[in-house]
């Protein structure tokens, strides 16, 4: 092989290697929160033990397709994104931290990763002291998640707790979360963090769909014999079937679009 040919091959190799080097890795979109966010499909025997129970984080990846990411440039600074759902049932801000779940996320965080934070369901459960966190503590743990995310140059996003299927009054769905959504809004303003008011978005959307529809199609209210995992049926107005979780995930995606300056 003559010298010119060798030089040409070296040039081609350098160009190819530069493309590999410049190719951006997908950012991770970490979801931290409670049972309404969790991915139950990760559990053994999901189909026989849990289905159709679905957290909105479980179905969120479909909204982060490459063609959708162009609408999220204000939040997701990459051409591709992968959801890493760390949410766990029964966790409040405090227990998520105390169990080391946040430490696992923090250790993995890289520049431009996104941390989406939805807590409140269990923080507000004063009747369960093992979970309960008062408003002051709730704010402090939110600040911790935000500040530590930023220390890794990641992007925190706050999400107020998705509504339960009560209280209904005159055909309109309200909030069962007390002062916790407002407390999260206060922290968002204080630290200038993007916030999605999922409490209001979900209540308004479910109101539009109607109580009967969301009760039977969105929440885990199941007739006896319909699903292997729930032979006696189920009445649950907090957790979602797949259709409900998908619509909540859509609301979250739309919230991200709005934060990015898109409608």
UniProtKB/TrEMBL annotation:
Annotated CDD domains: Rhamnogalacturan_acetylesterase_like
Domain of life: Bacteria
Domain SGNH hydrolase-type esterase: 31-210
Pfam family membership, one: Lipase_GDSL_2
Gene3D superfamilies reported for this sequence: SGNH hydrolase
Key words of the record: Hydrolase
InterPro entries linked to this entry: RhgT-like, SGNH_hydro, SGNH_hydro_sf
SUPFAM superfamilies the record matches: SGNH hydrolase
Gene Ontology terms, MF aspect: hydrolase activity, acting on ester bonds
UniProt keyword annotation of Nucleotide-binding present: no
Keyword match Hydrolase: yes
Family: Belongs to the 'GDSL' lipolytic enzyme family.
Name of the protein this chain belongs to: Rhamnogalacturonan acetylesterase
Organism whose genome encodes this protein: Arcticibacter tournemirensis
């Amino acid at each position: 092989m003559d010298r010119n040919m060798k030089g040409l091959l070296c040039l081609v190799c350098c160009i190819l290697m530069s493309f590999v080097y410049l190719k951006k890795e997908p950012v991770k979109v970490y979801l931290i929160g409670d049972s309404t966010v969790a991915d139950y499909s990760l559990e053994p025997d999901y189909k026989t033990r849990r289905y159709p129970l679905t957290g909105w984080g479980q179905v969120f990846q479909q909204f982060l397709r490459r063609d959708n990411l162009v609408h999220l440039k204000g939040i997701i600074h990459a051409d591709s994104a992968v959801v890493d759902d760390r949410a766990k049932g029964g966790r409040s801000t405090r227990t998520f931290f105390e169990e080391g779940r946040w430490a696992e996320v923090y250790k993995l965080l890289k520049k431009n990763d996104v941390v989406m934070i939805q807590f409140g369901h269990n923080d507000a459960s004063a009747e369960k002291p093992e979970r309960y966190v008062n408003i002051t503590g709730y704010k402090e743990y939110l600040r911790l998640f935000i500040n530590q995310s930023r220390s890794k140059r990641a992007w925190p996003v706050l999400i107020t707790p998705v509504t339960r299927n009560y209280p209904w009054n005159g055909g309109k769905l309200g909030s069962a979360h007390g002062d916790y959504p407002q407390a999260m809004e206060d922290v968002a303003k204080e630290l200038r963090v993007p916030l999605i008011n999922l409490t209001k978005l979900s209540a308004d959307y479910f109101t539009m769909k109607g109580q009967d529809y969301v009760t039977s199609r969105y929440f885990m209210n199941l007739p006896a014999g319909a699903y292997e995992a729930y032979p006696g049926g189920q009445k649950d107005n907090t957790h979602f079937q797949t259709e409900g979780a998908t619509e909540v995930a859509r609301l979250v995606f739309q919230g991200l679009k709005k934060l990015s300056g898109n409608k």
